[in-house]
Design goal:
heterodimer, A: about 190 residues, mainly alpha, Arc Repressor Mutant, subunit A, 7 helices, about 0% strand, elongated, B: about 425 residues, alpha+beta, Jelly Rolls, eight-stranded antiparallel β-sheet, seven-stranded antiparallel β-sheet
Chain lengths: ~190, ~425
């Protein structure tokens, strides 16, 4: 191989790495959500996402860049999720087991929407009362389970669970209303 | 079969998803119903995915906001009334509310997390340790303001002095200033930077492993690659907007041009603070690491050219510099997994410009949180709100520093420590 060929290969390799980086940034939030659905323990999900990233990096040459990147990445994620549970000696992922393909399809369908809705979520989070935000903080920043939150606040697990669910539903409703409102602007 | 399809209402399905993602184990029956609900209707699947996405988003957002703010949260806990669950009516949101008010509220809520807070905690801890050291050593380490650089733009004389004192006593546990004399380099038998052993915290000498050789440069006005070389104006240096000046002494590292230069040096893990170590090595979860270095490339060219410092091991690492995956060629950072850059974050600062890069790594279970500031003021701990680059890096275990380049670039004053004052470059470190 002469110097020109070597240089061409190096350039191609660099271009491929840059393309992978761009693709990865776009799909990472959706991919993370998909992984979270299969491994609700966030620290496990973050580890698993890393495994997915590594596998994607290793196999990137196999990716046909004429096709959308997300479905291919989801396919890799599904393989890694299955490996993960084999490693943990657990044979079944509750609810995700048979719904995994349906969720992967949903992920591909709503990915673009999710990206846009992140900004709206920021707005809606700001609208929550401080108490609601603090409760979310206990769950997501301190990583406490409803039972632990209930113990800390001296209330029942059921109350915490229901309140958290209501806050989440409120956030989703807020996002949808804001999205609809913004869509109507100019009509 | 049709029973399960109709049994579940959307609200119940979403509550079950919440319960599952909150760590509760669903019964076989509930799990089966949920699966059916998701599989039988694509709209249900979309709603389910949106709910999962919400959990994932909230986790990411609250984690990022909480990073480094454990003390603030602790204080917040003490200051605030005990949390009482919000009533149902309190949870509702009026989506027609104006935008401006909540933004103001959030800012007000975040004031507790400003740099002054971090600075005071940092200074408190560091100065307490330093004062203890001073007393133990019977004042063998005198407070000498001349050793720190002036001016520091602090209104309070007390804060200024404690900051300066913290800075004087601060020490990185890993340091390489590339201060090798021309005589030493002339007498050395090996090529490149092979066998150079200066600095602090290293297990052995540098190893120059690339096709090309790197070198130590002392006078960039004399040693340069022609009139287009951005480095010919002088040695790497930095001054902030308050006039705090950093001057580097001795030489600086320069990678070769043309083919690849690879310089590797391993850390002495015995000199790494124990808190940063666990059974897997250097990078214990829950700890914070600071590092800094200066850099300047021949020019701003991108397009696959690279010159970076790589912290980690061969499997995974953090790369900072001019990166092949940052096409414009500006200073950037990325995670590396098995040789591929991921999560590249690129700055607006051209790589032909000399830059002081300050990095804070929060080691977490799984991916690490990395915050970078380019040319930050030296008189205060940088604020997380003012980061120039933020990215998630793969789980890091640092056992070596590697400088890799296919484009002539200079690096200098590499420092790694446990606090900001450890790594802001001060004169007379040696």
């Amino acid at each position: 191989m002469d110097a020109t060929q070597t240089r061409a290969l190096q350039t191609e390799s660099a271009r491929s790495r840059a393309e992978l980086a761009r693709n990865w940034v776009k799909v990472q939030p959706s991919l993370m959500a998909f992984v979270v659905a299969s491994t609700p323990q966030f620290s496990d999900a973050e580890d698993l996402l890393q495994e997915v990233a590594a596998e994607i990096a290793i196999r990137y040459d196999e990716y046909d860049n004429k096709r959308p990147f997300l479905p291919w990445a989801l396919w890799i994620a599904k393989i890694k999720i299955a490996d993960f549970y084999r490693g943990k000696r657990r044979d079944r992922v509750l609810f995700m087991g048979e719904a995994m393909d349906a969720l992967a399809d949903a992920c591909s369908r709503v990915q673009q929407l999710m990206t846009e809705e992140r900004d709206l979520l920021e707005y809606c989070l700001d609208q929550l009362t401080e108490r609601s935000r603090r409760l979310l903080g206990l769950r997501y920043a301190d990583d406490l389970k409803p039972k632990q939150i209930a113990d800390e606040l001296g209330t029942s697990m059921g109350s915490v669970r229901v309140t958290l669910s209501r806050i989440r539903t409120t956030l989703m409703d807020c996002v949808q209303k804001r999205a609809a409102g913004e869509a109507n602007v100019g009509n | 079969m049709s029973e399960t399809k109709t049994e579940l209402k959307e609200s119940t399905a979403l509550e079950n998803i919440d319960a599952y993602l909150d760590g509760e184990e669903l019964s076989e029956e509930d799990a089966r119903k949920l699966e059916q609900w998701i599989k039988t209707d694509s709209e249900n699947a979309d709603q389910a995915f949106r709910r999962v996405f919400l959990h994932s988003y909230l986790r990411e957002r609250f984690q990022v906001r909480s990073i480094g703010q454990a003390q603030a949260r602790e204080r917040e806990k003490q200051l605030k009334e005990p949390l009482v669950l919000p009533a149902e009516t309190e949870i509702e949101i009026n989506t027609t509310a104006p935008n401006s008010e909540p933004k103001t509220k959030v800012k007000a809520g975040q004031r507790i997390l400003t740099w002054r807070w971090f600075l005071l905690i940092g200074i408190g801890i560091v100065s307490t340790i330093n004062l203890s050291v001073l007393f133990i050593k019977d004042f063998q380490l005198p407070y000498d303001e001349d050793k720190a650089f002036e001016p520091i733009n602090f209104e309070s004389d007390y804060v200024k002095k404690t900051f300066l004192m913290a800075r004087i006593a601060a020490q990185p546990f890993l340091y390489e200033g590339f201060n090798y004399s021309e005589n030493l380099l002339g007498e050395k038998a090996s090529e490149g930077i092979n066998d150079l052993t200066g600095g602090v915290g290293w297990a052995g000498p540098w190893s120059d492993e690339g096709k090309n050789r790197s070198k130590i440069v002392h006078d960039t006005k004399k040693v340069n690659l022609g009139k287009n070389d951005m480095r010919l104006f002088g040695q790497l240096g930095f001054s902030d907007q308050y006039g705090n000046i950093l001057l580097t002494k001795g030489g600086q590292y320069r990678s070769g041009a043309g083919s690849e230069t690879v310089a590797v040096r391993h850390l002495d893990l015995q000199q790494v603070p124990k808190a940063l170590l666990d059974s897997k090595g250097f990078g214990a979860d829950g700890e914070i690491l600071w590092l800094s270095f200066m850099a300047q490339s021949y020019d701003n060219a991108g397009g696959g050219r690279y010159a970076y410092v790589d912290f980690g091991n061969e499997e995974s690492s953090l790369r900072i510099g001019k990166l092949a995956s940052a096409d414009r060629g500006n200073w950037a950072a990325a995670g590396q997994v098995h040789g591929t850059e991921i999560n590249t974050a690129s700055s607006e600062v051209l790589s032909g410009q000399a830059v002081l890069i300050v990095v804070r790594i929060l080691f977490r279970p799984g991916a690490e949180e990395v915050d970078l500031w380019l040319n930050p003021p030296l008189n205060q701990i940088p604020d997380l709100k003012d980061v120039d680059l933020r990215l998630m890096a793969p789980d890091l275990r640092i056992d070596r520093v590697k400088i890799v380049s296919n484009y002539s670039t200079d690096f200098d004053e590499l420092r790694v420590g446990v606090s900001f004052v450890d790594v802001i470059p001060a004169e007379d470190y040696d």
